[in-house]
Specification:
single chain, eight-stranded mixed β-sheet, 14 helices, seven-stranded mixed β-sheet, alpha+beta
């Protein structure tokens, strides 16, 4: 079989590339390949079972049509018209320019609206109150970024991406589910295709591989595929540059504490460089009235995340506090470092997410299950195991997080309350960043990279935009 375009992965960057290929109407033969299931078949059993059972062969939250987006809280980060830069979502604008990125966001946002996203925008009605919060943050050494956000909601995301899946099928886009791309076919520095096998044979290294030929191959593997991508780049000598890994925790506290930020902005993006290390520390993926969740990556690596629904509500807000780690000579394996942190935390939790009270960290002790039951902040992730995250998170990372929490408490009173909860590990893998040109082409001719996995974007909207832009480039070939 031979295709004009083969895309590895079916996250937002991939499916929006396919959507735009359809709209360009150039008669391209396109195949999307995904290790997971169709979106309508993706069900996480944790709500019924009360714990993560580590679905085989792949986690339904991280794998499948629309990637982690199907189970995310579904926040689409936009921009302010007066902004002269793009402050959230990666580095897409470094390749195509700020104004073109804004136009792409507008175009892509309209696609989301077309498939059922709500028209209401968060963070646009309380300008004076937001400026007051920004001034208060600045006074305490923090930068508060405010941009409009369109919130889909976890359950609405599932439905919306299901509609896109149906649209692509009805318009001739071929999709191959439950299929692993084991390798790339490269000859004389030019892509020739991919080698695949059934996902049921994920652990069978001797399984027979099928070869699919293609003029162009797109790597759209998302953060879930960052480790796979790193290995592929090393094997085929695809050029990369040092990347980063964000390591941190998911923080849960009462809605009452976050009520102003929740009301005025829905998601506050706070950034600081706390003493003594000056590392970049930021909040990410804030979920008012949300729920902490677990997700499983390769080799049963369990990470923590969070989401929020449109209809189902808790009394807590959760958000990530992430520390950016840069590595250089002689160590340049950020993914390996992050995975080792996660493995150690998983061991402490017997394969589960670990949760600890902030007050217990200050007291230099672990949290016990009985203490958690009597805690004023009730954990929304019932499968989390009470313990001590400081055993594995690392001195520098832990110091950055605790100092940042103290800074935040001066802006949001109660942010450092001893009853607030820290879950670990939360890690965002961005791989060793792929070297790409302004056409998103790698050092291998005909091989392209889009989305979060290769370090170009971060988040649903910008990943989707990168797919649209590359589709327009390929449509002209």
């Amino acid at each position: 079989m031979k295709y004009d375009i083969v895309v590895v992965g079916m996250g937002p960057s991939s499916i929006f590339l396919a959507y735009e290929i359809v709209k360009q109407n150039k008669g391209k033969k396109v195949l999307l390949i995904e290790e997971g299931k169709r979106v309508e078949d993706r069900v996480c059993p944790i709500e019924k079972m009360g714990k993560c059972i580590k679905c085989k062969p792949f986690c339904n939250i991280t794998s499948g049509f629309s990637g982690a987006g199907a189970f995310s809280d579904g926040k689409l980060s936009l921009y302010n018209k007066e902004d002269d830069d793009i402050y959230v979502g990666g580095v897409l604008h470094d390749y195509i320019g700020v104004e073109e990125t804004k136009e792409l966001i507008d175009y892509t946002d309209n696609i989301y609206l077309e498939f059922g996203a709500g028209e209401e925008l968060e963070g646009i009605e309380h300008e004076e109150e937001i400026k007051k919060l920004q001034r208060k943050a600045k006074k305490n050494g923090l930068n508060l970024i405010s941009i409009p956000i369109r919130h889909l909601g976890t359950e609405k995301s599932h439905i919306l991406y299901g509609k896109i899946e149906k649209f692509l099928e009805e318009n001739g886009i071929e999709m191959k589910f439950n299929t692993i791309v084991s390798d790339l076919v490269i000859e004389k520095n030019k892509i020739k295709g991919v080698k695949i096998k059934d996902s049921s044979k994920a652990e069978d290294e001797y399984a027979e591989l099928e070869e699919i030929l293609a003029e162009n191959v797109i790597l759209a593997v998302g953060r879930k595929g960052a480790n796979w991508l790193s290995n592929i780049c090393e094997k085929h000598k695809i050029e990369t540059e040092p990347g980063i890994v964000d390591i941190g925790i998911r923080y849960e506290l009462p809605n009452e504490v976050m009520k102003e930020v929740n009301k005025y902005m829905y998601e506050g993006k706070f950034i600081g460089r706390p003493y003594p290390f000056g590392d970049k520390v930021r909040t990410f993926c804030q979920n008012p009235s949300g729920f902490v969740s677990a997700e499983v990556y390769d080799n049963n690596l369990t990470l923590v995340n969070g989401h929020s629904y449109k209809d189902k509500k808790s009394t807590n807000t959760n958000l990530a506090i992430l520390v950016s780690h840069h590595f250089n000579h002689p160590f340049n394996k950020p993914i390996e470092y992050g995975r080792n942190v996660a493995k150690n935390l998983n061991k402490l939790g017997s394969g589960n997410v670990v949760v600890q009270r902030l007050g217990d960290i200050y007291r230099g002790k672990r949290t016990w299950e009985e203490e958690l039951k009597n805690n004023k902040v009730e954990p929304t992730l019932k499968a989390a195991v009470a313990g001590d995250i400081t055993f594995a998170l690392g001195y520098r990372t832990m110091t950055d997080i605790l100092q940042f929490i103290k800074q935040m408490d001066k802006v949001v009173e109660g942010f450092a309350n001893p009853d607030n909860l820290l879950y670990g590990p939360e890690i965002k893998f961005y791989s060793n960043k792929l070297k790409i040109d302004n056409q998103f082409e790698t050092s291998i001719s005909g091989l392209y990279s889009i989305g979060d996995g290769g370090g170009l974007t971060r988040g649903l909207m910008m990943a989707s935009c990168s797919g649209v832009h590359l589709a327009r480039i390929l449509a002209k070939k």
